[in-house]
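Hello, quick one for you while I still have it in my head. I'm working through a protein record and want to make sense of it properly. Would you mind checking whether the tokens look sensible for this chain? I owe you a coffee for this, so here goes:
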Amino acid sequence: MAQDVGCDVEILGDALEGEARDVARTHADLALERKRRRSGSDRPLLLLSGGELTVTRNGNGVGGPNAEYALALALALQGTKDIHAIACDTDGVDGAAEVAGAVIGPDTLAKAEATGVSAADALADNDAHTFFEKINDQVVTGPTLTNVNDFRAIWVG
């Protein structure tokens, strides 16, 4: 579908594993590298991945691997223009919360700052769901009654 509407697509794999924050930093590096190589006439690029990521809980917050991935990705991208992403669990439940995941964009950290929320503190406390709730960027689908995989998409314009 993405190709049909004019995007190039790069599939990073459908069975990725690892710490959500580490995979996010790797994906941020990849997205930034792809953005640097692009010319103004290039089609937008969609980086797709799936697989079950993990979170080693060190804090007392509420979150799941998709929201933690999105939060770590936003921090790694530092508001880079024309990069947006979504990370969600296909069953509609990320971790123990009735939240599928979150979306990020170039304005994520600025919205957090304007709301008085620290992205770095939220990541350190494993509190990604609270972070995205406060900036209104949670994805809430309700239970989908299907669990195919976790899904991540990064759009590089």
